[in-house]
Amino acid sequence: MDWGWLFSPTFSVFGLVIMNWWRRFYNKNAIYFTAYFLIVPALILYIVFRVYPIVYGGYISLQEWDGLRPMKFIGLKNFSEVLFNDRLFKVSLLHNTIYALGTVTGKNLLGLFLALLLNERLRGRTIFRTILFMPVVMSFVAVGILWSWILNPAFGLLNTLLQGLHLNFLIREWITDPRIALYSLIGIDIWKWTGFHMVIFLAALQSIPQTFYEAAMIDGASKRQFFWHVTIHLLVPVTTFNVLISLIGAFNVFDLVFVVTQGGPFHATEVVLTHMYIQAFKFYRVGYGTAIAYTLFVIIFILSLLQMRIMQGKKYEF
Amino acid sequence: MRPHPKIISQVFIVLILVLFSISIGYPALWMIFSSFKTGGEFYSNPWGLPQKFAYLNYKEAWKLADIGRYFGNSVVVTFFTVFLVGLLAAMAAYAFARLKFPGSTFLFYSFLISMIVPAQVTAVPLYVLIRKFHLFNTRTSLVLCYTAGGLAFSIFLLRAFFISIPRELEEAALIDGCSYLGILWRIIFPISKPGLATIAIFQGMGAWNEFFLALLLIREPSVRTIPLGLYVFFTQRVIDWTYVFAFLSTATIPVIILYILLQRQFISGLTAGALKA
Known about the structure:
The structure holds two protein chains of two kinds.
Chain A: H1 9-28, H2 30-60, E1 63-64, E2 72-73, H3 77-85, H4 87-118, H5 125-133, H6 140-150, H7 157-164, H8 181-206, H9 210-218, H10 223-234, H11 236-251, H12 255-260, H13 272-282, H14 286-312
Antiparallel strand pairs in A: 1-2
Helix pairs in contact in A: 3-14, 4-8, 4-11, 5-8, 11-14, 13-14
Chain B: H1 3-35, H2 39-44, H3 56-65, H4 67-98, H5 104-113, H6 123-132, H7 139-163, H8 168-175, H9 180-191, H10 193-209, H11 212-217, H12 226-235, H13 241-261, H14 263-270, H15 272-276
Helix pairs in contact in B: 1-13, 3-13, 4-7, 4-10, 5-7, 7-10, 10-14, 12-13, 13-14
């Protein structure tokens, strides 16, 4: 092909006009170009691996699909099965609820308690804080394996300790007894995360101006009164956050259960996500598993909104 | 003044704290002790220090489980996740913080809104997507998923951080003829080190410890990350417990050492969300 025309005088004028137009357009909008250049890489990743799966998941949840053969559209049948016909889903959700009640109260009460202790002027405060926060940096897999041994009925540390303290009546089969396995998991979760909530409470406590305390002391308030009438109210925002985080965590629990009990014994520790995992990846009910996950998401979403609504009402400004 | 009750209450507080610290610190210490004990000593002397430090468990565990490879995989995945999230989030956050362009508010909030959807919810579609892209059984798939998952929160944090930087610096640079990219590279990145460190620790810990997606997206033993390798090793229960503890210690000790050295950054990094909330 002959490209000579590109260099012909007529075309060069045309080219110059276009180049000039583009340069002016670019200069006028340089800021926009820069901005989009900065955002586009993040945006692409985000759309492909975050937005698209959310939408596509909604689509899969309406199909009967084993992951191999073509999908079959069945409308909301998966969801109606999850909500009305799946006994195990209800059991799992109940376990999640118990888990949430146990961990949310446990982590936050203990966290607040320890934060109040650490808020005193003490020697070695940093050391305590360092140790108490440490499990937060460990993975749930590591924590789960460590505790599977501690709670091992035959040789585990806990039962050995109880025996040593002559508290034999407390000895249990911590993770193999269906009646208490779930509570053992709650205990492990609390062990791992209390330090996290403690640090957040502590930061909030330390942000309370000293003048508040002095003013209350001048007015003749006792330390206890100060706590119940002032501190508690100032902690509402941070408590809202702590409760929200632990609530969401409790409904999304998977790793710990999967490592320590695999949902057993006899589904005694089955939670929604382990149920989802088994349905989607063991029984190849891919559409159905997705429907379970989406149902869980809606439940978490509603609970979070409710929780925030309730606690925002109690907020004090200063 | 009566110092007496005060001292008593102080002693009391310290006692409670010591008790809690033991119940949290001892299991971790005990894990390390156990990893050095021989099989027999593990059962006969469960509580104390090992009589002599037996490195044999480590040797055996490394041989049985290919720990070196898992460790390398975790390092690679964590490094690239942190690098990508840091770079991409800082770029986007700077645009959101400083440049006015059509759709900026909409885009920013659409990033934020994705934070309410936990990664577990999109597990199945993500799995299908990764298979379609032929990224199944690759470390790349983990890096991409972790990066995409971490972007929203990091952009949110870094944007707040950038807004708190005084504008005068950048204006001076603009007048001197520096481009926006030049400003980002020469001014914003260097003074945002604390913000970037927060992101790095938060995302790094997340990637290093992540289990759920790794379980779904990795089947091939040679690309397993540490949590996955640990889980598989643990479920083959025929293996001696002391080996499990050797593996457990290998996986945990580096993180704990790093945490103790950089504890201020770790604590602020991992609780970063709360301080902004």
